[in-house]
Amino acid sequence: MKRVSMTFAAFLLAAPTLSAAADEVTYRKQIRPLFEERCASCHGADAPYLGDFKEKKEEYVENDIGPRMDTYADLIFFIGWPDTGAIMRRLDDGKSTKDGKPGNMNEYLGDDDQERQKNLNVFKAWVGEDAWKLKRWKARGDVPGATKEEISKMKLKY
Ligand code: HEC
Question: For the chain, does the N or the C end have fewer beta carbons within 10 angstroms?
Fold first, then answer.
């Protein structure tokens, strides 16, 4: 009996941690299905890697094909390094952009404003609210490059 109550006590102690972990956005739980539904038709396994994409960019864009980002590793390439902040710049709704206009991939996040906002929030939570910066690896114009501190705030749970 004593053993059972000890187990139960251990469970109660662990419970808050468990529910916090369950709320956490992960690639496998939320991002992959969202990507499959909303992005994979143009950025899927048949799409070219960024290096190949760049060599024939016009042709690909004409055919609605973007660079490949259909796995965890391929996707974080466009968040952390080397294409730092690309996902943030393209998906942002205009709140973090300089001109106040949404990034050009924002429209694909949903069929209406509400759905786009909801799915943007999922991406933001996954990257990390504090890491949702639109900066590149290197400075460009008057925008400074991302700092190591900013990069280290990225969550990107698998
Ligand atoms: C209808 C096709 C289509 C859909 C759907 C689409 N994209 Fe794209 N995406 C493109 C094309 C074509 C480009 C390249 C042209 C450009 O840069 O705008 C691109 C470019 C990008 C880039 C910039 C890559 C770089 O060069 O750094 C990112 C990031 C991106 N898309 C993310 C997404 C995400 C995330 C989704 C899903 C929410 C999505 N896209 C949905 C076609 C699409």
Answer: N
Pocket of ligand 1 (CB under 6 A): 38-39, 41-43, 61, 64-67, 78, 83, 86-87, 90-91, 104-105, 108-109
Q: What atom of ligand 1 comes closest to residue 119's alpha carbon?
A: 38
Neighbour tally for 131: CB within 10 Å: 21
Instruction: Say if residues 68 and 47 touch (Cβ distance below 8 Å).
Output: yes
22 pLDDT more than 80: no
Q: Exposed e or buried b for every residue in 103-129, given b needs 16+ CB within 10 A? A: bebbebbbeeeeebeebbebbbbbbbe
Question: What is the spatial distance between Cα 37 and Cα 133, in angstroms, rounded to a whole number?
Answer: 25
Amino acid 23: pLDDT = 75
Contact 135, 4 (CB under 8 A): no
Task: Output the average pLDDT for the chain.
Answer: 92
